[in-house]
Amino acid sequence: MADTMLSQGHAAKMDAVYQTQRHFYDLTRKYYLLGRDRLIRRLAVPAAGTVLEVGCGTGRNLIAVARRYPDARLFGLDISEAMLEQARRNVARAGLSHRIMLAQADACDFNVATVFGIAAMDRVFMSYTLSMIPDWSAAIRAGLHALNDHGQLHVVDFGQQEALPSLFRRGLRHWLALFHVDPRADLFDAAKMVSAESGRQVATKSLYRGYAWSVEIGRFA
Description:
alpha/beta, 7 strands, single chain
């Protein structure tokens, strides 16, 4: 019951945050959500593969994945119904409603078989999502649980800006906090721990002088 109430509370918070922002979200975020297109290139989706975005927001990334991998089957979940409304409009406008299925679900507690009728996914990705999820390590585990035996989890999110000027770091952190965004200092450590638990490999990388961090977990050739 407590977990359900927490999930409902987070959903309400995200709806409140994005009720207005969803209309201009993509226009503004393209300038500072760095590394999203790199993640999409690195997905290397297998032929007729299945791809899930956790925290799909407006559907921007799923549309880009659909265009890059034209035979992939795509799925997206988000806890915010306000964002899903925008995603459905964007997907329909792109003519991709037949390829992209969207659903409301909690990133920390979902089952792809129940939500989408798919046993497991070839790829799961999270783009600037973990920094807004209270129990973000649970979301990583849920993402791994959704993979098939040869699947991969890809993550990009705000890093610790470790090689950027301190004044920039302070200003960015203050600004992000206004939107309930908290860059996860323990992301790399958590990724290594859960990858070991699951028997998978992990690759971590700091991008753009630490502005963004990348995580890839899976069984790589």
